[in-house]
Structure formats: structure tokens, C-alpha cells
Write a structure and sequence with these properties.
alpha+beta, two-stranded antiparallel ribbon, flat, 3-stranded antiparallel β-sheet
């Protein structure tokens, strides 16, 4: 499995590439699942977010893409 970051830098380097990984975060007795998501736009700009699901990350990415084209 490829790590999403090396030395704090994203390994999402190819234009149009997306990477994600799921992780657990424990607060007290509750454990929550999250998705860390990176997307490298075709213009080279990096979009990154952390949301509860991959689907939520992609919705956020799509909203970001819409704002970029306006």
C-alpha cells in the first residue's frame, strides 16, 4: 500500500490522481471512522480533506471543482 504522505508531503503527484485511506480516531469510548482524501487537479493544485466517508470527500471535491470553474 502506498502512503499518502511522506515527510508531511502528499504523494498525490499525478494530475487528475486521487488517493484516499480510511483511519479510526478514538475519543473516550467512541471510535469513529474517517477518510483522508487527496485529489490533484489537472492544473496541479491539490485538494485535500477529511470526512466520515469517501462519498462525502468526493462531494466536497466536486463542490471545490465547481468553485474553481466559476
Amino acid at each position: 500500500m502506498t502512503k499518502m504522505t511522506v515527510g508531511g508531503m502528499s504523494t498525490t503527484t499525478e494530475k487528475g490522481q486521487e488517493q484516499y485511506e480510511m483511519f479510526s480516531y478514538k475519543t473516550g469510548r467512541k471510535t469513529r471512522e474517517y477518510c483522508q482524501y487527496d485529489y490533484r487537479h489537472t492544473d496541479g493544485e491539490l485538494f485535500t480533506c477529511v470526512k466520515p466517508t469517501l462519498e462525502a470527500c468526493r462531494v466536497s471535491r466536486d463542490e471545490w471543482l465547481k468553485r474553481k470553474t466559476v
